[in-house]
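User: Here's a structure from my thesis project, written as structure tokens. My advisor, Dr. K., wants to see whether a designed sequence matches the one we expressed. Can you design one independently, without my sequence as a hint?
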């Protein structure tokens, strides 16, 4: 970038900032940087990455600045390198988005600590901002402060941002306390095939929510005289449906019993948060939740969501496929126990340190050291189950791990229509992955990985699995259009580079 460019970009940023009536210090806080850095950027005296321009564009909600980062992001991976040292697990996408939605239950100020800076969070923040919620990054950009307005402007909802995530479905539970009629767009997210909303409708109907779907929009009408007359039995033990039922029950005066509830990590984080809001919940960590709701919540609350077991699994898989010794710190071990038991059977050499509590004071963490191991395929198939089964989002990582192991591994991904199919992309990097039917793949190892250039599969976990295989393959690979990875992982390339990977980000301009 020439100096002239820097000065022009700087003045565009200054204009956009002034247009938003922000001071340099406020913009700096939103970006997690210093006021002097913003000052240098605006004067054209600071080299500025495309990533930073993109973040400024997001912070200022500015077309002018976001023009500068037009193209999709790609990764160039120099593979065949071993990793070493230690790496921390970040907070989870799935708890962070649920907690952002749950902040709508609270008329007071909500602070969420160390929220992952990921695209999925940005999309929900865009939706919240569009309906009048004031959310800003504080404490050097680490934490989020969320303050709702007196009345939400639901008609102004940023439907484009909403459609890019599945998580927007979790607006239903909180919004039904605030409005008698509202609309939200169909939930989007990864291309994993059909994902039902019927269990959400069934659960929320007990609280008087009637949902009809027309042309890409859900129309919600709330009958305030309705009240659950018996325990609500979820028709699926899903995570977001349990969260919606919890958020509906949280502000429903009286006691609600939810059966066949998910007890997965994000649900537990939401329960701990609701407790801080004064909602008593019995049975946390089990499949029957008894919620003692309160009519109005107005509290200044501070909560630290826990670490992401799926990110922990991803980093563990990175160590396995690259044959590395790596310490993964802050692993929420309770949510990785079955994965570790299976890997132990396969011959994984690893150590777990002493347990210590996460910042929420409830989740148990360990530091996990993984060492290079000669793995053999497991005797039984790998398949997920709702918690406490093998985590649904962790299944794809077993494809990459199985490809490094001696023998044949059957992976049965019954949950999603399309996800197993994406695992066959690993064949382009030298793996033997045979699709037996849309839900089952047979992986034969070990693999001699080879570099390749390819598009990112349109699903988060399979995309990361491809990236890991590229890290294992000698030579230079290119993974194109990695938005889907950025949906769920904060600065993944940079963080992997900090333990020895060589991954460069680039964009088409
Ligand atoms: C924002 C968020 O938290 N997303 C997570 C959440 O999505 P979410 O809770 O939205 O997941 P879905 O409701 O789409 O469920 C995933 C799939 O599992 C099926 N299903 C689920 C439970 C069950 O008892 N029976 C059953 O058949 C559903 O029909 C669907 O096909 O849970 C998924 C499954 O853990 C994870 O992949 C997502 O990362
Ligand atoms: C499928 C996933 O997420 P989402 O529900 O956000 O699509 C995932 O995290 O792997």
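Assistant: Designed independently from the structure alone:
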């Amino acid at each position: 970038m020439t100096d002239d460019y820097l000065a022009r970009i700087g003045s565009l940023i200054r204009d956009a900032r002034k247009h938003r009536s922000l001071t340099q210090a406020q913009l700096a806080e939103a970006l997690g940087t210093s006021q002097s850095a913003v000052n240098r950027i605006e004067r054209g005296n600071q080299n500025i990455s495309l990533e930073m321009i993109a973040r400024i564009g997001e912070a200022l909600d500015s077309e002018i600045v976001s023009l500068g980062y037009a193209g999709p992001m790609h990764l160039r991976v120099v593979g065949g390198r071993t990793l070493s040292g230690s790496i921390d697990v970040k907070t989870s996408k799935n708890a962070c988005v649920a907690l952002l939605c749950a902040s709508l239950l609270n008329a007071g100020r909500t602070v969420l600590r160390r929220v992952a800076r990921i695209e999925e969070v940005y999309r929900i923040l865009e939706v919240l901002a569009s309906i009048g919620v004031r959310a800003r990054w504080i404490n050097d950009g680490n934490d989020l402060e969320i303050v709702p307005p007196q009345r939400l402007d639901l008609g102004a909802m940023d439907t484009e941002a909403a459609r890019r995530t599945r998580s927007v479905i979790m607006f239903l539970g909180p919004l039904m306390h605030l409005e008698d009629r509202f609309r939200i767009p169909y939930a989007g997210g990864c291309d994993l095939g059909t994902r039902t909303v019927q269990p959400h409708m069934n659960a929320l109907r007990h609280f008087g929510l009637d949902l009809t779907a027309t042309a890409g929009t859900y129309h919600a009408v709330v009958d305030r005289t309705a009240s659950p007359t018996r325990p609500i039995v979820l028709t699926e033990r899903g995570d977001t449906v349990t969260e919606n039922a919890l958020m509906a029950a949280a502000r429903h005066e009286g006691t609600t019993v939810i059966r066949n509830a998910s007890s997965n990590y994000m649900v537990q984080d939401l329960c701990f948060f609701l407790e801080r809001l004064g909602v008593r919940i019995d049975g946390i960590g089990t499949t029957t939740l008894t919620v003692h709701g309160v009519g109005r919540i107005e509290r200044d609350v501070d909560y630290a969501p826990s670490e992401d077991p799926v990110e922990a699994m991803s980093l563990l898989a990175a160590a396995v496929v690259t044959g590395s010794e790596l310490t993964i710190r802050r692993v929420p071990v309770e949510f990785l126990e079955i994965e570790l038991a299976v890997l132990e059977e396969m011959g994984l050499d690893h150590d777990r340190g002493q347990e210590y509590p996460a910042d929420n004071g409830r989740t148990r963490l360990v530091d996990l050291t993984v060492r290079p191991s000669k793995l053999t395929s497991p005797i039984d198939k790998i398949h997920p189950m709702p918690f406490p089964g093998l985590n649904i989002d962790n299944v794809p990582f077993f494809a990459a791990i199985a490809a490094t192991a001696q023998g044949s591994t059957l992976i049965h991904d019954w949950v999603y229509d399309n996800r197993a199919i994406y695992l066959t992309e690993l064949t382009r990097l030298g793996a033997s992955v045979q699709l037996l039917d849309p839900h089952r793949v047979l992986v034969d190892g070990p693999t001699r990985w080879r570099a390749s250039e390819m598009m990112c599969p349109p699903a988060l976990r399979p995309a990361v699995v491809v990236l890991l295989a590229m890290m294992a393959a000698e030579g230079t690979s290119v993974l194109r259009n990695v938005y889907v990875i950025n949906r769920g992982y904060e600065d993944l390339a940079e963080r992997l580079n900090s333990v020895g990977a060589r991954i460069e980000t680039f964009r088409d301009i």
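When you compare it with your expressed construct, this may help: The chain has three domains: 3-69, 75-90+307-507, 93-303.
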